[in-house]
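Appendix C reproduces, verbatim, an entry submitted by the partner laboratory led by Prof. M.T., so that reviewers can inspect both the input and the predicted structure.
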Amino acid sequence: MNNILFVASECAPFIKTGGLADVVGSLPQELKQNEKQEVRVILPLYDEMDEEWKSRMEYLVTFDVEIGWRIQEAHLFTLTYNQITYYFISNDFYFTRKGIYGYYDDGERFVYFSHAVIEALKHMDFRPQILHGHDWQTGIAIALANIKQPIKDMKTVFTIHNIKYQGVMPVDIFEDFFQLGREHISGMEWNGMLNCLKAALFHADKITTVSPSYAEEIKEPFYSEGLDPILSERSKDLIGIINGIDMKEYNPVTDPSLFVNYRSARLKKRENRIKLQQKIGLPYKEDSPLYVIITRLVEQKGLHLVQHILEEFLNEDIQFIVLGTGEPEFEGYFSDIASRYPDKAAALITFDEAIARQLYASADFFLMPSKFEPCGLSQLIALQYKTIPIVRETGGLKDTITPFNVLTGEGNGFSFTNYNAHDLLHVLYYSLELYNRPDEWQQLYKNITKNQFSWKESARQYVALYDSLLPELIYG
């Protein structure tokens, strides 16, 4: 039996801001199907967490956590959900706040969390053989696991979900946060700053990221956010494993958010679209395909490309809806477009999970022209709801979306290579042309009804990775 402890800053269904929570929530569910894996998860206990979850938790123990010269308490709670054991670390000073990120002391908060995770290992009824950290918030836990060896022979795995976010702090706080010799600074320092992500890359036994293409991309300066030297140095320990999605959670047959449930019938998708457009006040046009964007409104998502070409594309017989919040530049732009094209465009400057699912179920095309995309879950969800993705060939988008080939009839979407607005416009025109060619459109639609990106294959690859770190369990 392999004992694995996931360490993360968020996890569905308890607390979620993005795809990280979906991964940490659903991957253990798939791993537990393998009888050799016992997977548990440890998280911060945020004030934002729903009281229903808090009321179901069992208090375990209170212990002290040393952060440099200071002592902070940690209260450890546990909860079993869907046969997975979760641990929660509570501390009023660091986690009793509105929201979970965005504070000036986020670095200190997650350094504390990492210290607390290592200390909690002494108080659990569970001895992990592998500590598996996710993103920069857990990077120091991976480093401390290697430096302090709290459990003899425990191995570490670290997953990069988005290398853009690294947890960077002034290096002169090292003595304030750690009771370690100064020889350990070099393993945590990068470009004159204390860097939580770099600390994990230096110390982890194995490094994973969330798609094979992204694993290659981040070895290059354009994608690496400055960390390509260490990633190239550790390339033999770096592997890309594509994310999956929870097939039960994202299922148009059973999704309670939809107006009309369906398996693959296009008429049922149309019924959803009629009701959605009535709800948001966009007139329904039967022969006009609906293009949607569901995303954080930030530069990474390729929205500068959309800005350059959207008005030109709106001259065609199409409709467009965007759902999301983010940078004021993009919120203002899409709101202006909606006000000037009231019969063709709508901007929902909010985020609502139910409306997002209704959009997936209603749309013909899902647009995701990202500048970079480690994996992307949205294009996989779109496929589940029988909506055709249009993506840029980067990271996980390249690994999951194959451009439709009219000669062979193969492919599950549309894609373009260069980060260029007119390349995006060209592929949009092509998607519209194919939509109006019934035989080819029907073949493409048939293709996506066969696509499934469950966690099954990805979990198999994680099991193989864990086994490679614990060979004595296989051969001993």
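The radius of gyration is 23 Å. Additional entries are available on request from the coordinating office.
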